[in-house]
Fold this protein.
Amino acid sequence: MIRLYNTLTRQKEAFTPIHEGKVGMYSCGPTVYWFAHIGNMRSFLFADVLRRTLELNGYEVKQVMNITDVGHLTSDEDEGEDKMIVAMKREGKTAYEIAEFYTAAFKKDLDSLHIKPANIYPKATDHITEQIEMIKSLEKNGFTYQTSDGVYFDTSKLAEYGRLSGQKSGEKKAGARVDMGEKRNATDFALWKFSATGSDRDMEWKSLWGVGFPGWHIECSAMSLKYLDVPFDIHTGGIDHIAVHHENEIAQTMGAEGVLEANVWMHNEFLTVDNGKMSKSLGNLFTVDELVAKGYDPLAYRYFVLGGQYRSKLNFTFEALTAAQNALNKLRNTIRSWPMSGGVGCADLENEFLSALNDDLNTPQALAVVWKLVDVDLPLEAKAKTLLWMDRVLGLNLESYLGQSIDVPDRVKQLVKEREEARKQKNWKRSDELRNQITQMGYSIEDTSEGTKIQSHVVE
Ligand code: AMP
Ligand code: ZN
């Protein structure tokens, strides 16, 4: 039995799929106007672990992840500039070029973190017709009104509004600034925004209401309807999406289709950096590529994220990432002597591992079971078999290390020798420089009483 915490009911529930043996899952994807940061990647890693856990339980999962390439304003409250236009101005490119470039960068990040690709990545701009059709249904059902700047959803018309966040129509959290404009209720939101007169938007479309572009929330309701049908099983995203984006998605699907969009709503907590919010101005907003440039393996970040349960805040520091890298190296080096072939898995530890994951994705507990496996007295074949099975969720590419002796290139061996010399001469600066060079080449070193140990930490 899989138990998952459902934000909608505010409790852990036994998961029952709508169609036996199958799971339809929608994960809110990136807004492709800039590189995804490691906080965003936590959200996608969480969805990946969820999907892999469902698959390990034998479900066939269809995962849809949208690519927001239009209509997400810099504020969730339908204010500010369109994020894509901000990027166009910054980079002197067309909105379509921006979207293409950052979508490719995003997919590269997914790949390097071993996040399984979704079955479909629908783009908002490819589904304008579907979004317009949904707004038409909402209009027909009496949920919309028009102002001078767009078509809005009237949240007071939907009795269930606020079910996810507990924030009813017209209410906004104390302190939240709402520019009402011509809106009727503080929680009302744009379904379609008109292009401002004289604005030179790359991305705008004709509609029966006027030339403009869709609001941010409508794409997820329209595309989940198209690719999964509603209701579907599970919807994922970060906790920042609960109050506005997901509440509004639910409202749109309920208003247009008369059903709940998804049965289970799951949200990951935030990744903080040095116990604070990540931001460009604080200089603590990192991308996966930046971690790699500092000599880390992207899978060390994956290991680090697995070390926190998705509903707990996770604090990123480079010390913690180094600890994750070292633990991963240790695991890889341990299993180099484990044979690849044959063997029967250890049922007890497999059950323990699965029970941890099936308890609302308790990944720290699952990792503890991996280390238990390392220490347990069992034939190495059995250990190897069990570990490979566990890696179907862990996604740490452990198969590449099982039974593989380390093959260190001559150049790395040479650098290690030079570093030993530098250390003898107490030239710490040179020694550090050499360590950095070795790290850049994908190897890490450990100074032990028997000399320098070399470990590979690149994905081979
Ligand atoms: P965005 O591209 O801004 O829509 O964000 C993509 C995903 O990352 C969303 O599900 C957000 O909720 C999530 N997210 C944003 N910042 C963080 C963070 N610091 N930690 C974890 N998830 C985040
Ligand atoms: Zn969404």
Observations:
- The radius of gyration is 25 Å.
